[in-house]
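Two proteins, back to back. First:
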Amino acid sequence: MIIVIDGPAGSGKSSTAKEIANRLDIQFLDSGALYRAITYLWLKSDKPDKAKFFENLPNVQLRTEYRDQTFYVQADDENLTDKIRTQTVAEHVSEIASHAEARSFVNNFMRELVKTDAYVADGRDLGTAVFPDADLKFYMDASLKERANRRYLEMKEAEKSVTLEDVMENLRSRDEKDQNRKNDPLKKADDAIVIDTTGKSFEEQVQEMIGIIKENTTIN
């Protein structure tokens, strides 16, 4: 079973999906972390020619695990869990994620992963491109100001120099790129349930979505 939560960056998808997974005792899949991992690997290799980078991408051994409320990502023998949560990675992730080769790699990885067990996954095109037949689809959104503040609070511990203005501009730019990219742009699936989190507490949005899940799936 797969429940998907799409929406723009900073709308609360990951934190909400994690909490839903914890409370319903199901698996959590962070698709954004997978794209961040690929972006980190590209940056680490000194931004090589993208064609060569994507040609070698299928050779990367990607592994994930969700435990202790943390989504762990490993590429080959390197733990990327903390390394992918920097402003530098955030500034380049849309650039890398816009390529068909990157999306194919990540999408195939996720489809294989969810063949067993029940998952809740968050992303931008899960309900439209990756899992069009998902058991349940949500689309989360919030104002740019609220999304930027959430992301800033998330990032400032890992990167002390980041400012709220930097984060807001990054989100504005990512929204533009995500909505207008050629391959699998960000958009709401026709059958997705919209959850606008502007002005809502975290508990309110989690309870609302859990109620919908229990009403529309076999998960209790």
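And the second protein:
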Amino acid sequence: MLIAATTMKTMKTMKIMDKKAPIILALDTSDLDTAISWIEATQECVSIYKLGLQFFLTFGATGVERIKSATDSEIFLDLKLHDIPNTVAGAARAVKELSPRFLTVHASGGAVMVRAAVKELPDVAVTAITVLTSLVDSDLQEIGFASKTLDTAVALAKLAVTAGARAIVCSPLEISAIRGAIGNTIEIITPGVRPSDSKINDDQVRTMTPERAISLGANYVVIGRPITDGWSISAGEMRNRAQKIAESILN
């Protein structure tokens, strides 16, 4: 019976891994070969790879093209554009040929700015950042926002969607309220997710487990260090971590 139970568990895991989980893996590294090795270790269960400012400022468009050639997964280009509309429009045009699945802008840049990016990238899901997961109510008050984190995030999400954004980034703590405000056709992406056994200490303070975030209405969860863990682990361990998180979401 023990052998049968083990076989059933293995078969269930194989079935789960037949499809990729809604995980966006953050390739937060300034070493291109390291980034590619992370892809090779995890692409059986990771849907999308996130390339942020550190990566883009180090390698530029050439680095993005190399990452795209290394994987059959899609790219989340996390540049968090925030400037006057004309400048954001120009930046959007500059990355158009890279054809990312998602490109991030700050919703706090205003509707005209978001609309400028949308106009330049009709085939890309312009993705609006609401409130960074490193910020709490007291931070927003210090910056000068009149409302608390939840109300601010919902207002920014509604503004961005009205301006044409096709995806929203928010803390997992705001998923339910934002989903209720923007409906089901807009994708919600949430960073600030941590497996229940994670020991990562970082600057993200509004967090939740991946499976809980998906159950509340997120389409994708962004995960980095709980899988890659500062570059020091083996490819096999990285693969195991990614698969364990994938199974927790897909079960």
